[in-house]
Records
---
Amino acid sequence: MAARAPVGYTYDDLLRFPEDNTRREVIGGELFVSPSPSWRHQEVLKVLGVELHLYARQEGGVVVFAPLDTWFTHADIVQPDALSVTREQLDRLDAPLERPIKVVPALLAEVSSPSTRRRDLTQKRDLYERFGVPEYWFVDLDADRVEAYRLSDGRYPAPVLLGRGETLTAAALPGLALAVGELLGAEA
């Protein structure tokens, strides 16, 4: 079966936009523009970032945050809230830490926002599954939990749901352990 040509927007189109810190993503050739996230979103992302950074510092690899283009195809470029690339993945890159990142990350994380929630749980989740992202975390601020999607036989089965008092781990990042309550912050 021949691959169909991308329709609509591509990475070349993204490059034509000004560098104005506006989050622009293309999924299946469709352009998505998102407003800036909430204060709580940023606080949760900060805690997640610190934990992932400390892990990468000890084990090797790198953690980056949006806005940074992550390339899957010419018509599928997203800006996950956080992504982790292992030391082994960095060693395989021709130009590490360049824009866009052209490697399937070991871990991708999205923190819920009203404007992106549906896309994060459908189009992005499907994209990550299709390209074999080993683990995808959706930090659901409304439900006060983390949904951990873990690739099994090329698919994401139902997510592991983790709440306060539980510990979040990732098979692709052995030894990483995050207290979900600390990640979510003070109870609302």
---
Amino acid sequence: MKKIISAILMLSIISIFVGCNSQTTKETEKKAVSTIEQIQTNGYINIGTTGEQFPFSFKDKDGNLQGIDIDLANKFAEELGIKAKFIQEDIDQLQTSLINKKIDIILSGFSITVKRNTNLLFTSPYFETGKAILSRIPEIKKGDKEFINRKEVTLVTIDKSSSLEFLKENFPNATVITKENITECEEVLFSGEANGYIGDYELCENLFFSNKNNGDYNFRNLGTLDNHEFIGAAVSADDFHFFNLVDNFIKKIDRESQDIKIEESWLKYSN
């Protein structure tokens, strides 16, 4: 009798467990589908971006958003038959907003890192870049790691960025100044407060060519430090259906679109 009762209890537990899993799966699927339905119902999709990361997301002289990621966002919205609504925040806040569903996608020259990937889902990379250093000091311009990695050398970079992580890892002894955006970094660098600026190669290049008073400043790709960096779009980790939609768009856009050639786009904005 005890064996029969035990068997009945076990079957009941299994039944409850299977039922709960089945219900959870249905609720998850419903939640994933509802996100896509929601943006279609609204008629727009919320795109998180900083507006401070050339050539991915930046403002032109009239204050309008431009860049590779702005083009991608508008093209994605167009394929869905809706509009792209841009929400500008700093990188750290964008991640929080994505988790809290304030935005649907982060498109902002967003580097794929292990730390970020523990909380968010990244699409396949659509751009490869790396870190560079901009300075007027010969040893820094050459990327002399031993010379740069001293407390006497002051480097500026954007706070809470992958560039800051790179700086701390490769030049732990250097004195670091962090700023909220590239404009503030530029002011610190060209005022002489900092000896060099570390950022994405494209940012350094644009900063150099766009500044008429750059004097004998120049930039150097820090490729010798194996700093390859991959850029992707990020979406909420609990929405695989939507992630799949965005990821497939990213994978095919550069092959099919006549308007957007991602690997060539930054040249357009550099001119």
---
Amino acid sequence: MDLQTFFKENPVVALGFSGGVDSSYLLYAGMHYGAKIKAYYVKAAFQPQFELEDALRMASILGADMTVIETDVLSVPHVAENPSNRCYYCKTAIFSLIKETAIKDGYTILLDGTNASDNSGDRPGMRALEELSIRSPLKDCGITKSDVRRLSKEAGLFTWDKPAYACLATRIPTGTTITAEVLGRIERAENALFAMGFTDFRVRLTGSAAKLQFPESQMPEALKRREEIIIQLQADFDSILLDLAGRKTEETLI
């Protein structure tokens, strides 16, 4: 099956939309193949502001129908406790909310942007999607991450080379309680580094310290601008640490 066939067989669908590479291409493809597709973006403490801005920008460019749903994800049982399967509880809550809203709007089929490169093994979030009967057409059609980037570039989507970006909760070690205050500190730190021109990095919480993970290619620049980075981040963290191993590719890290 290809995407054209999928949307021919499923002409009215809702999409859990993040504004990232995969869901942006899926939104484009649905519209390109004539489906009635509506995007739903959930704004919660785990999503930084720039993700919402990217989602709104993409929907505007495509002329897509998009609804923003706000929710307090930290009030969901077990999420703030941050167990190893936190993503299961979070995904269940978020996609249940999208599904409930979409059904009220007349959409009974809900999609997500999981692609064929995403390994479902030992990923609690994937189990949540399966239990809620969320369809993943990119995965079902055998479309990999590299395929999505290539097709997105061909379609002229600005997201084609957007770095993979996991939610802010992934910056906090399993078992460490997640609070809005901690998430805010991490988001401010990452925004500061983005403003300095760094990309595809992570700011990980380690006790009261920030551990910075840059791609290997950006490590010399990070070392060169060490003092500037410290000045930008020191108000929110007791120590600023640099992971000398660097950050791996999007295929191996979230």
---
Amino acid sequence: MHQFSNNAFNFVDKTATVGENVKIWHFAVVLAEVEIGDDVVIGSRCEIGRGCRIGKGARIGSGVFLPPNAVIGEYAFIGPNSTFCDDRTPFAGNDRYTAEPPVLEAHCSVGAGVTVLPGVRIGTKSLIGAGAVITKDVPAGAVIRGEPARVRRSLNFDIYAEPLRSKMMEEVPLNETHLLPV
């Protein structure tokens, strides 16, 4: 029995093949000719492009975009708000468009907010940290993460008019109530 509804809250094209125990959450869109294996979960606000293949047990977080013909392996995990691209020269009316959909192999894990560029293959059992931008293939079993946050420059409060500038420059006393538990 399917665990989704094709109503005003989500859209599943009638040509999509949906396995058993699949959950498709609110406002998700599953386009034509998609194949979804058993026990898959697709989060809210996802767009699953035409012809995608999603393997058994995969988990796709909310807000994920998969372009047409993407391949998602069994038990792959995709964190929320991750975006997968298939066009190296994206502009409207591009008559030289050549689709290069991503391939995610079995048991890989993609963190939240990751961007994967066209034609990239993510290897089996690899792990990609949140926020990374993946520009080339990821080998099986690799751990990939983006550049750590660091101070690049300081804000210049001189651009603010008084009295806001004075307010921005005030010292903020730090005491125990400002600290979060570790």
